[in-house]
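Q: Please design a sequence for this.
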């Protein structure tokens, strides 16, 4: 049976577990199509030698600290492919691509013909976000629980999965609050379910938890 990606949303609020060698809780996911895997990872800031080495996530080693110099701020990521999509997994609270794109890092600006779909936990700038670059050079944002307002196939998948929650003025403030209190815990799972349905991407939960996928240390943008 396919693992899909709904499991990532199920563990959205799962606390860190020191027994997990890879990732389980609090994962941000970036998907890219229309760009070759290594090119996309280089655009994110991957080191060429490290990329060539195809080091397993569990074998990554932080760069040595040089006395008298500040320690580099690096993010450990896991990556792979499913069908036409490259996927990048991170569990440090944000997604590198979302930070770089919003910070106008030129290598992370989406090009025409390049589709990028990012689900970032956004721990330091809540709420969690969906950022979708559909391939026309533009990108559209949505908080978890809303759509990108583009009436796209992604928006339709979000609605079909029940990942679009009532909002003002369509419902009263009390109704919105009550709905979130009752259903909000499942929202990340529903968002990832919708994105899985839209992309067809499936990621092996056991491999991610064990850290048995290739990994990289990427400088924070």
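A: Design:
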């Amino acid at each position: 049976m396919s693992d899909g990606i709904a499991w990532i949303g199920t563990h959205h609020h799962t606390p860190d577990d020191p027994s997990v060698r890879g990732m389980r809780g609090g994962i941000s996911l970036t998907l890219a199509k229309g760009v070759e895997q290594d090119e996309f990872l280089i655009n994110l800031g991957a080191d060429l030698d490290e990329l060539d080495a195809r080091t397993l996530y569990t074998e990554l080693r932080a760069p040595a600290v040089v006395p008298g110099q500040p320690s580099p701020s690096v993010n450990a990521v896991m990556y792979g492919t499913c069908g036409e999509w490259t996927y990048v997994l991170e569990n440090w609270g944000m997604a590198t691509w979302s930070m770089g794109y919003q910070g106008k890092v030129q290598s992370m600006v989406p090009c025409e013909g390049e589709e990028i779909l990012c689900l970032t936990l956004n721990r330091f700038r809540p709420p969690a976000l969906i950022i979708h670059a559909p391939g026309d050079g533009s990108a559209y944002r949505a908080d978890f629980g809303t759509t990108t307002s583009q009436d796209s196939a992604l928006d339709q998948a979000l609605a079909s999965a029940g990942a679009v929650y009532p909002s003002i003025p369509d419902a009263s403030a009390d109704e919105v609050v009550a709905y979130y209190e009752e259903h909000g815990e499942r929202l990340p799972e529903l968002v990832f379910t919708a994105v899985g349905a839209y992309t067809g991407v499936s990621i092996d939960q056991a491999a991610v938890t064990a850290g048995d996928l290739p990994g990289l240390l990427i400088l924070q943008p």
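Q: Thanks. Anything notable?
A: The mean pLDDT is 91. The CA atoms of residues 79 and 88 lie 4 Å apart.
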